Amino acid sequence: MPPVTTNKALELQGFSLRIGDRILLEKVDFSLEPTGVTAIFGRSGTGKSTLLKALCQLAPFEGTVWLDGTDTNGCKPEDIRTRIQYLHQEPWLFQGTVAENLVLSASFKQNHRRSLEDSDIRRHLEGLGLEVDILTQDAEKLSGGEKQRVAMIRSLLLEPEYLLLDEPTSAMDVSSEEISLAYLRNLSHKMGIIAVSHSVELISTADRALLLADGTLAEISEELDRDAIRRMVENG
């Protein structure tokens, strides 16, 4: 069955996720828009991170994921991952400086058409509240919040159509989180940003909030205050 939409949406059709005998999602039909920030939240262990991994073929699933009208099951994983970047909650940085980490990802075979400009690196650094002199620092000695932002820049430099973020601000202080979320909202006018998070700040400011619970993915359409969001995150 073809996708319902072909507007570059990331569309789930008859989509199911399981871990062993446990059902995380059961025959879900859903469309994730090519722009804007979508927050996915719910209790720990409901399958949020597994869902992100499945969207870029890093975890098995049943059903179909359409990307711009193409069934991703028929695509090479490396081709999907040039268009959909996934960022783990605890990103792994290579040994070396921050600058070397940012340049190295573009040298991989699947990214060989991507060109890196110093102006782009500096723009992302400034947007995420990082000083330029961080480029010369040892990447492995950065704080957790700095590592999250450097890894985010590494993915952003590849100009993906979708950026999948797993708890992207979990190691950041309040100020860094606010700066980073504001920058991501600005970038979301030209890419789809899908973030799994327990952050009330992220969920409350997203364009769309999805609750993953009891094997379903439900959109929260009404406006919720922060206390209500906090209760939903805790109780699923």
Give a short synopsis of this structure.
33% of the residues lie in helices and 25% in strands. The protein contains eight helices and ten strands.
Compile the SSE list and pairings:
Elements: E1 10-19, E2 22-32, E3 36-41, H1 48-55, E4 62-67, E5 70-71, H2 77-83, E6 84-87, H3 98-106, H4 118-127, H5 144-156, E7 162-166, H6 174-187, E8 192-196, H7 200-205, E9 208-213, E10 216-219, H8 226-235
Parallel strand pairs: 3-8, 3-9, 6-7, 7-8
Antiparallel strand pairs: 1-2, 1-4, 4-5, 9-10
Helix pairs in contact: 3-5
Can you characterise this structure?
- The chain has helices at residues 48-55, 77-83, 98-106, 118-127, 144-156, 174-187, 200-205, 226-235, and strands at residues 10-19, 22-32, 36-41, 62-67, 70-71, 84-87, 162-166, 192-196, 208-213, 216-219.
- The chain has 236 residues and is of the alpha/beta class.
- It has a single domain (10-235), classed as Rossmann fold, CATH 3.40.50.
- Strands 6-7-8-3-9-10 form a 6-stranded mixed beta sheet, with helices on both faces. Strands 2-1-4-5 form a 4-stranded antiparallel beta sheet, with helices on one face.
- The chain is globular and about 50 Å long.
- The protein starts with 9 loop residues before the first strand and ends with a helix.
- Report the uncertain regions: none
Query: Major beta sheet, specifics?
Result: 6 strands, mixed
The protein's oligomeric status is: single chain
Query: For the record, what is the CATH homologous superfamily label?
Result: P-loop containing nucleotide triphosphate hydrolases
N- to C-terminal distance: 32 Å
Give the CATH level 1 class: Alpha Beta
Shape: globular
Named at the architecture level, the CATH assignment is 3-Layer(aba) Sandwich
CATH topology: Rossmann fold
SSE run = EEEHEEHEHHHEHEHEEH
Which class best fits the helix and strand makeup? alpha/beta
Estimate the strand proportion.
25-35%
The total domain count is 1
Mean pLDDT over the full residue set: 89
Tell me the number of helical segments per DSSP (H or I, 4 or more residues long).
Answer: 8
Name the helicity range.
25-40%
What is Rg? 18 Å
Question: How many E-type strands?
Answer: 10
Kindly report the spatial arrangement of strands forming the biggest sheet.
Answer: 6-7-8-3-9-10
